[in-house]
């Protein structure tokens, strides 16, 4: 009886089992990182949507009439975005309660035809707190800023 070179069945089974344990140990954390990457991308996307909305409102409020009326024009905000406005006094104290902000037609925004040509109306708050919350992929992002009345 001659002995042939090669691996026994037991050796092959042990090697396969060791390889399986190593692959499981490597792939477990790797798939977890893919999940974190997806969550991180959704959070980044939500922050980008919120920032774009916030900058749009701030840009439109450079027009005195839109700021005074507390409105913005254009297409509706995305369904995943909520915007609220809180009037503030000059000491950053709250005046009244926060109200939701929605888009209006150009005609509905008073004074939406150009820059300020007269002094600021005394009825407009000097500051407004703008809160924008956007949700993408179940990940919310909230941005808050204070917007001052334009003197232009």
UniProtKB/TrEMBL annotation:
Q: Which Pfam families match?
A: N_methyl (PF07963)
**Membrane-topology descriptor:** Single-pass membrane protein
Q: Where are the transmembrane segments?
A: 12-36
Identify the keywords attached in UniProt to this record, alphabetized: Cell outer membrane, Membrane, Periplasm, Transmembrane, Transmembrane helix
Give the CC-aspect GO terms: cell outer membrane; periplasmic space
Q: Where in the cell is it found?
A: Cell outer membrane; Periplasm
- Protein name, as recorded: Prepilin-type cleavage/methylation domain-containing protein
Q: Which organism is it from?
A: Deinococcus koreensis
């Amino acid at each position: 009886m001659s002995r042939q070179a090669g691996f026994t069945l037991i050796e092959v089974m042990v090697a396969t089992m060791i390889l399986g344990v190593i692959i499981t140990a490597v792939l477990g954390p790797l798939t977890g990182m893919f999940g974190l990457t997806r969550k991180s991308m959704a959070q980044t996307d939500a922050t980008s949507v919120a920032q774009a909305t916030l900058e749009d409102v701030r840009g439109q409020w450079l027009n005195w009439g839109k700021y005074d009326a507390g409105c913005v024009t254009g297409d509706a905000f995305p369904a995943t975005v909520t915007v609220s406005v809180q009037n503030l006094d000059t000491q950053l104290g709250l005046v009244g309660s926060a109200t939701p902000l929605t888009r209006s037609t150009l005609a509905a925004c008073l004074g939406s035809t150009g820059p300020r040509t007269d002094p600021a109306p005394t009825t407009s708050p000097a500051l407004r707190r703008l809160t924008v919350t956007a949700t993408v992929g179940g990940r919310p992002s909230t941005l808050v800023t204070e917007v001052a009345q334009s003197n232009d």
